[in-house]
Design brief:
- By secondary structure, this protein is of the alpha+beta class.
- It has 19 helices and 11 strands.
- The chain has a single domain, classed as Orthogonal Bundle (Cytochrome p450).
- The strands form 4 sheets. The protein has a 4-stranded mixed sheet with strand order 1-2-7-4, with helices on both faces.
- A hairpin with a 7-residue loop joins strand 1 and strand 2.
- It is globular.
- Bound molecules: protoporphyrin IX containing FE.
- Protoporphyrin IX containing FE binds next to helix 6, helix 13 and helix 19.
- It comes from Papaver atlanticum.
Length: 518
């Protein structure tokens, strides 16, 4: 009897699964507009475009000529989304009336593998996480550890790997290199451990693979209806089985790292990574408030670290690969970056210019003063924000600055990707990669990022805590790569975004490298 009902449910799951795949994920016909279907509302259109949501949202904004639209659920359901890229709405939601727009229960269920970490928490639980993470990020010892470790990884792993590729004239996927780099940096920052995932042999790493798997799983939870992925989870089949497996691997590693760190600290071994800081703060915190972690709460640490790890790793990898692609496709921009680097190199190494030591790795501090490089990074993050969309829930009814009425329980989807592609926000040339838009006539940076229109790092109380770290990393990698190597992008590659929580290139970016003689 039990097995009969199980088979029945499995059959239903299978039918629905195939239906959604054919309507949504593999459906080639996409729509530039938002249609209302009898009984079903606008959900079928959403499903048909589920593999390219940021792009579709952008097309709908263009076709409607405004920065917000609603998606209605099936008749009799209360499901309704507001999708917006209106920058005054975004400022209102993320900053002015912040408390009225938590992430909410839907987000929390989809991201439940992250537990109570900062990315998934709201209200008091979020405040605790934010305070702890902020304490960790602003510590001067952590900042030093971060910049030393980044330089070390660039110098001792990234550049040797690229030199090896250049020497053997082999083809490499630059996106994979960026992901491996981001993984090594994030493991160092979070736990103070060196994984050497970027070494010449491109070794496999079960933790890195499990975290990538978890990303995929969370994406599927966005695409297919909640009841369906919950059924898959109940029966431990399909993507949900992969999620469970990935989580087991992640937990095994994370709990081992936490227990190892506790032992180190007991032995008096000091370190300044994020985990050490969290353990220290956890011990100092009061334990009689229910939302606060208790002294030996390893689950709390696991959740905190998993969020911080995810927040940094994928965003850095994504920011890097889109930047590199845009610059490599825009020879004028590449030339200007190289000119700045040469000037910096000759000002620092005047005496070495004749003999020219190769390869050369720049100091993060020196790179921070380069105007064109900074402008180019901002420009690529505008066009390809690593986190393309975000969602919020409405607590109390309110009219947003553009006149949209939102009601309790409604979901709001903010499309950061679309913000960067609206001509009424960035001008008619908004689709062009033009670092010059960030530089004024006196050659100084225009700080658009201080205005609400540059939303790539979020706004308000939940602004990204790793923004400075992100700029440091991207500049360090780009400078080392472009200054020391000539990069040839293989012809015939069709570059388009892969559907994911963070933006990546669907099939990677295959390149050949050659030693660059300056
Ligand atoms: C180019 C790189 C990056 C971009 C574009 C970026 C963007 C963002 C965005 C949009 C959010 C808001 C997410 C949300 O509300 O769910 C966020 C949050 C956050 N980011 Fe980043 N991020 C980047 C790199 C990093 C790095 C390297 C770290 C360091 C670990 C980091 C740490 C965080 C943290 C801790 C939060 C949570 C803030 C909160 O909820 O209070 N980010 N980031």
């Amino acid at each position: 009897m039990v097995s009969l009902s199980k088979s029945f449910v499995l059959a239903i799951v299978l039918v629905l699964f195939i239906f959604f795949l054919s309507v949504g994920i593999f459906h080639k016909k996409t729509s530039k507009a938002i249609h209302y279907w009898l009984f079903l509302g606008s959900l079928p259109t959403l499903a048909m475009n589920s593999n390219r949501l940021p792009e579709w949202f952008t097309q709908v904004f263009h076709s409607l000529g405004r920065g917000s639209f609603f998606i209605d659920g099936p008749i009799f359901s209360k499901l309704k989304y507001l999708v917006t890229c209106h920058h005054q709405n975004i400022e209102y939601i993320l900053k002015t009336d912040f408390n009225n727009f938590p992430k909410g229960p839907v987000f929390r269920q989809i991201f439940d593998p992250l537990g109570d970490g900062i990315l998934n928490a709201d209200s008091d639980a979020w405040k605790v996480q934010r305070r702890m993470a902020h304490t960790a990020f602003i510590a001067s010892e952590f900042k030093d550890l971060y910049s030393n470790m980044s330089r070390k990884i660039v110098e001792e792993q990234l550049v040797p790997l690229l030199a090896h590729v250049a020497k053997t004239r082999s083809i490499i996927d630059l996106q994979e290199v960026c992901s491996r780099f981001a993984f090594d940096v994030s493991m160092n920052a979070a736990f103070g451990v060196h994984e050497n995932y970027l070494s010449n042999e491109l070794p496999s790493n079960d933790l890195a693979e499990a975290t990538a798997q978890l990303q995929e799983a969370v994406l599927h939870r966005h695409i297919i209806p909640m009841f369906l992925w919950k059924l898959l989870r109940l029966f431990n089949i399909g993507w949900e089985r992969e999620t469970t497996k990935a989580l087991k691997t992640i937990d095994a590693h994370f709990y081992q790292l936490i227990s190892g760190k506790r032992k180190d600290l007991l032995r008096g071994i000091r370190s300044f990574d994020l985990l050490s800081s969290h353990i220290k703060t956890q011990e100092q915190m009061s334990t009689n408030i229910s939302s606060l972690p208790t002294k030996n709460d390893d689950k709390f640490l696991r959740d905190s670290m998993l969020s911080l790890f995810f927040a940094g790793k994928d965003a850095i990898a994504s920011g890097l690969i889109w930047f590199l692609w845009l610059v490599l496709e825009t020879p004028a921009a590449e030339r200007k970056i190289l000119e700045e680097l040469k000037l910096l190199f000759s000002s620092k190494k005047r005496d070495l210019l004749e003999t020219h030591e190769w390869p050369h790795v720049f100091d993060a501090h020196d790179l921070s003063g380069l105007v064109y490089l900074h402008a180019a990074v901002c420009e690529s993050l505008r066009l390809y924000p690593p986190v393309p969309i975000n969602s919020k829930t409405v607590l109390k009814e309110v009219v947003l600055p553009d006149g949209s009425l939102v009601k309790p329980g409604m979901q709001i989807i903010i499309s950061y990707y679309s913000v960067g592609r609206m001509s009424w926000i960035w001008g008619e040339d908004c689709l062009e990669f033009k670092p010059e838009r960030w530089i004024d006539d006196d050659g100084m940076l225009i700080r658009h990022e201080n205005l609400s229109k540059f939303v790539t790092f979020n706004l308000g109380p939940r602004t990204c805590l790793g923004k400075d770290m992100a700029f440091t990393q991207i500049k360090a990698v780009v400078a080392a790569l472009l200054f020391n190597f000539h990069v040839e992008v293989l012809k015939g590659q069709h570059i388009f975004p892969k559907p994911a929580i963070t933006f990546h290139i669907e099939n990677g970016l295959k390149v050949k490298l050659q030693k660059r003689v300056i």
